[in-house]
């Protein structure tokens, strides 16, 4: 994973710390081990280490939680890696009783990310607490997704913070930020937007005593921290992403950089193949999408209409490189070409795979219903007839299309109109319940509690005002296809697209603070916000300065492996999304950094990567999503 240290921060060092702590924990358990994995933890832990590395620490079995039988265990120790969830304790108790009746082994439980007193009490009640040799916790803090993206992988953060008022994720996020500052120095300037940002910063303040010992020893590598509460901008995840990576996520879902696709169209990354051999069909359509894939790095931030031209140029260049074997005449030239064969083979596999992915995307984007949906979104974004019942939403309900799609469009209209008229909201509710079933009433109620559905009452954020002040949309709803044959990423800045007519408000926040300062943004934003009286202000904005002692930030220094190898005087800004961020927002931040008048580079931190579908699924009541 050499690509992780290619950015301004050597993020691979975070992964190295995680591995060291993880393997130290495993090595503290003598004998062979069988790990029982909470299935939601498997993919995140693959970002830390592969299975082969676990085997080097006497792990001989990896089993899935809820599918373990005593007869399956062959190791001396059974180690549960589990989230602190009460319902899981009952299953663990059953497993232990079944295993103890068959063979003698030691049991260990490792809570991720931390222990839970309620879970321990539950184990005592079930009579199995004494069966555990050790009960520990492992907190990986930030998982490194790419050279500029880190995440605590807490997909239910938005639901827990806004519906259940459970701030466990914010505590974990604050702890992760403190760990980050221990590694890269205290961040001198902090800006926060939204209620959850303030709560998070207060947690950080309470933990500051942990930084006293390193305050004067670690150089500050990050200049600014911008905390953004997802509730401030629910518009960006509600609309369809239209970048290459964004559409792959919309259609197939990307989880911890991995995507699963129909395997028949893809080939394996087999570097042992010769240039003349036919590509082998992949048996598992699982691919990892990160900057370690050179072609994906070029494609991921592109508006989908510009992907084809870039692939054609890439294919032409690859053909030219393979043709060098015909022009090689001397022994030295032939040797140089032979040495390049594994690299060229890898490029050829990447070319074939991304061409197939682009074809899968095109199968969706060529459909009439896709363009109808984008057209509807564009009209709402440009505030066209947002106060009345939307005909396309009516059509979607009459077709019994996926309810998440319908709710996503209603959410979009709610935000654009700053709340729906009572008659309009009642109509949508009635149609949904009669078409999809009354179990969805629970989801609708949850959306109202979270502010995703609400009545227009004159309070809240005025989208129409933000749209003008921060230039969030283009007037035309038609795609800007100018220069479509040019594959340069610069084409998809605001004059290009990450969406069809919309530029993410969260990225405009970052851009405004970077170019005009905090006070200018504060003045512009607060004019468009009107919090409800006698209630907590959800649009809190604050600026704080953290003392860095006598240490000044030293740029371009190679005195520590933690620092960047990039020689630049640009500011380094950490943008943290509380409640999740989309791939389109990540792309927009990357492209913003490329603008000539922006002298900043960005690292993106988040609670998880989301889109409109996953956001609403996290809110939806389990009864509503249960299949009949």
Automatic annotation (TrEMBL):
It comes from the Eukaryota. Pfam families: Sec1. Residues 545-564 are annotated as: Disordered. Coiled coil: none annotated. GO terms for biological process: vesicle-mediated transport. Belongs to the STXBP/unc-18/SEC1 family. PANTHER family: VESICLE PROTEIN SORTING-ASSOCIATED (PTHR11679). This is Vacuolar protein sorting-associated protein 33a-like protein. It comes from Dermatophagoides farinae (American house dust mite). The lineage of its organism: Eukaryota, Metazoa, Ecdysozoa, Arthropoda, Chelicerata.
